Queue: 2 jobs
Job 1
Amino acid sequence: MDALQNNKGCRLGEILLRTGAVCQEQLDYALSVQSQKGRSARLGEILLSMGMISENCLAEALSVQLGLPFYSLSQYYAEPEAIQQVPHAVAKRLNLVPLFHIDEKNLFVVMADPLDLTARDEVGALTGCGLRIGIAAKKDIQDNLDRLYSLHDKLEGAIPDTSKEREGIPWKQENIPPFTDSDAPIIEFVNRLIRQAVSEGASDIHLEVQEGGGCARFRVDGLLSTVFDYPSSFHHALVSRLKVMANMDIAERRKPQDGRIWIAADGRHIDLRISTLLTINGEKAVLRILDKERALRGLDSLGLGTDDRNKLEMFCSAPWGILLVTGPTGSGKSTSLYALLQKLNRPDINIVTVEDPVEYAISGLNQVQVNEKAGLTFESALRSILRQDPDKIMVGEIRDRETAQIAVRAALTGHFVISTLHTNDAPSAVTRMIDMGIPPFLVSASLMGVVAQRLVRLLCPLCREEYELDPRTCDMAGVPRGTRAFRPRGCSKCRNGYRGRSGIFEIMVIDEGLRRIILDGAGETALRQAALRQGMRTLRQSGINAVLTGSTSMEEVLSATL
């Protein structure tokens, strides 16, 4: 209530007028309607009923007027203990969400109407806690309430069947009985968990157990966030269910296992790769979500500038040579490889890939999956591929000297080879190949280009706000002082002001000048300087260009590049 008292002098109409949400004429008309209806009529509700402002706009204005934080619920998960204290029906009736406990005596609640003292008193009496209030749009609460409660409700239904011992056999024992009808809550819960992750665009699901209990986390746009916590007794049942779905050995817990699950979700076929690993607290399971419809994109959707796009088009038209795509794990290398393959894919071209594993099946390609247990390694597969009359070859990753040697030989005998390499930037790919044992003259003769990349989160176009970069940041970024850019704000349609990701690229074309430098055995620094003189843009420069066009924020680029 302190925030409400301290901001009583700030009028809602003035805030809406100052932010441009309404014009003076609209405000005057709404005020006249308010005077006719009496003192009990609220200006915000009048403007809302007339369609002059949105619910989101009203909530943001109220947050300024009352000095309370504004929340976009799509980016949050409720604390299980908080959800337990306020029944779903009560939260729905009062248009509020209990998000988390500040401490043992205080609960943080997000409300559509923070001035509804009756609702606040009811929740306070129900929970026995003091309330700290945040604001969200009414529609945002309604849209997210079922999501925030559904997993918890299903978890509550499943726990009684899994926390007890069955027929005297504790869950920690490795001989787990087969699933029966009594396990239906577990099955439904796992299915709901996966569907929710797919609908939220998660790339991974983490199920892990610590001393205090288990938790599920989703990775969305590169960031992990906790979905919910659950008792550790529930964890083993979840992992066992996933093992059953993936045809893995549920009795084997000591050794790491890998499996695969195909499901249908949101009308699409989804491929899940599951990996389990025994930690000191129990088995951790990670599910990689491979959504073909979202991942298989053309060059147009990678976030390439015109110049970078032209360079990749040039690489795709080359009859032979090696093109390397580099970057750390999770930088979008596979997405770029598949985009290149789709560009190259034509009926008159024989394209063969060797991958570990094959992530997406593409019609028209001959895709080979590595199987080291059967003796099919990258090296042996590549040797066989060269006898299959290929035009274009994709190698999932160059990991060792033998694979690198065969790739170079393939390029020098008239094949176009694309592959990935784990390096931090484009010039270091050259020194990495040489460090693997490939002589500089072969690297110089075979390498056509290197694409280094990173993924950055994209600003939400609906709520991003423009501001002026401070002089120090301008100097560091190499842009004129006074340059304006955009930063995240947050709304009901995004996560903390970001929605989706895109690539930033550093593309090095190996021309005759760079070939001579490689042949002379020059170091990475000399190679970088020569590439910059040739016109190569660094990852940092590519990111700053994205900042200036409003695609991403300066903070995002600075955290992703050096």
Job 2
Amino acid sequence: MLLLVLSALAIHPLEGTVAIHAMLTVSQVSKSFAGRILFEDASLQVNRGDRVGLVGPNGAGKTTLFSLILGEASPDSGKVSLEKNATLGYLPQETAAAGAESVLELACGKSHQALEDEHDWEIEPKAKRILAGLAFRETDFDRPARALSGGWIMRAHLARLLVMEPDLLLLDEPTNHLDLDSLVWFQEYLKNYPGAILMISHDREFLNALVGSIVEIAHAKLLRYRGNWDSYIEQKAAREEQQLSAYKNQQKEIASLQQFADRFRAKASKASQAQSKLKQIDRMEKIAAPTAQAKTIKFRFPQPPRSGLRAIALKDVRHAYDSLVVYDSLDFEAERGQRTVLVGPNGAGKSTLLKLLAGVLPVQRGERELGHNVRVGYFSQHRVEMLNVRQTVLETVLDAPDPVPEQTARTVLGSFLFRGDDVFKTVGVLSGGEKSRLALVKLLLHPPNLLLMDEPTTHLDVGSIDALIGALEQYEGTLIFISHDVHFIRAIARSVLHIHGGQLTPYAGDYQYYLDKSQATSARAALTAGRGLTNEQPETAAATAPVGAPGMREQKQQKRAEAEARKALAKGRRETEKRAHDLEMQIAILEGRQKELSGELEDPAAYEPGGRAVAINRELSTVSDELARLTTEWEKATAELTLA
């Protein structure tokens, strides 16, 4: 069956026949682009049923390899061939076309007459099941596809691919446009996909769950490692260690032979031996020095000013979308330095909570209180709308009251895939993913002390995610975020907040602690779990108590004493919190007065005869002393709260 080529998404067969078990063969292919060698004598074989992850740094040639496989580009030498009559499906990373067809028609491929009518009765129910798995509602099925946002159009094209079931799927960052529930569904669906899969993905958990081998583009070759992502990392480290050891040994041997030749080549009796040593060096098959790994950028990111201990609080907050009540009587508090990931099913209110904290959504009832000296920054995919489309990438990053040096800006931009002349592109010509990365760089170089992030790793490659982790590991402010990237969560989160049914369940430990307590079946599934378990286990009946255990009366007395102790501790903490808050307010007032007085001292009139310079200095000294005293008290109060 011939499936037509779409402008943004292709499903088509490639000509050529190969060995019966090989579906795709890349044979001794070389390819240069703009004077740069991407592939040199590179080979790859993908068999039926293979699940392969394609990895390599940005610019290594992943997209070029897909273009060669799709027949959109030709190799300089070598051959790319697909098994005869095999079909190939491709999902690009961004921008797929949509016409007048409905969502269901697009998923079924009807508008392109790629299906035979007698199969419609099978195709349409299948398409509906897949669309539902990708979070389309039944009311969306008859909507014109072109009326959807870009992300939802991509989902509809992904549905079409899964309906068609081509023999080989080429997927380029397929999880970028999926929410958590859809991602979990898609991951499970691919486990039973009947064809072969070759995918590019930054999601290490996704690769771990699905692939049986990793193909790395390195040194213009296609290097294959058996196993998933974690296995690839271990094997690659072992290979590099072996290569380094072999390289060092060979270099020692070469140095020894060269030393002999240099020493004795002038002596007639030894000249022939010296010449023999030089020939021995020439005949050696040289071992290449291991290429230094691209490392996460190592410099000190700018840090925000220190906030008060309580960064932000929501008190008795209610929020509803028309008749749908998301939160009622919500209480939430975040302290300075906290790093919390929000988890829970779609629709539970994770993004709503983040927007309430950011002030993007107004509080309908209750209070939103910012702590002392708190400055809020909110990163979401919609943040790109705040960028100036006329500025260049570099101008955007440097446009700040306290800009970083240009070299620093260019170094960070390079880690987030803006390299060379890319920094001179105007924002208006950037793709959605590029704008998202640019907004992220701008935020990291001018950070607030309360950072709220919604899916920050979308559109980032593995290297950029590691650069983001490196920046956030240095970050000294308060961080609350949502992510579906398990690797990122494990690296950054120090506490977990589960949200379900308007209820917040905190876990005072990292993501592994949450997994252990919630008894999750998988690290991915736990992100959308419908309920969180409390840290307390149900009490057992007295009849099942072991011999020697206290009786019911003693248990009640013990529980009463414990409750009173907790009550006293809570009261003491509230009093300390109030004292710290009052001190913060006093400090803020005095800091304002200190600034006013310093400004007055800059006025030359203050130093003229009869001027106020002496009085101003006297008051400034008093204010400074009082500030020092209050700051000491505030630090003592916050230390008590930290230890409590």
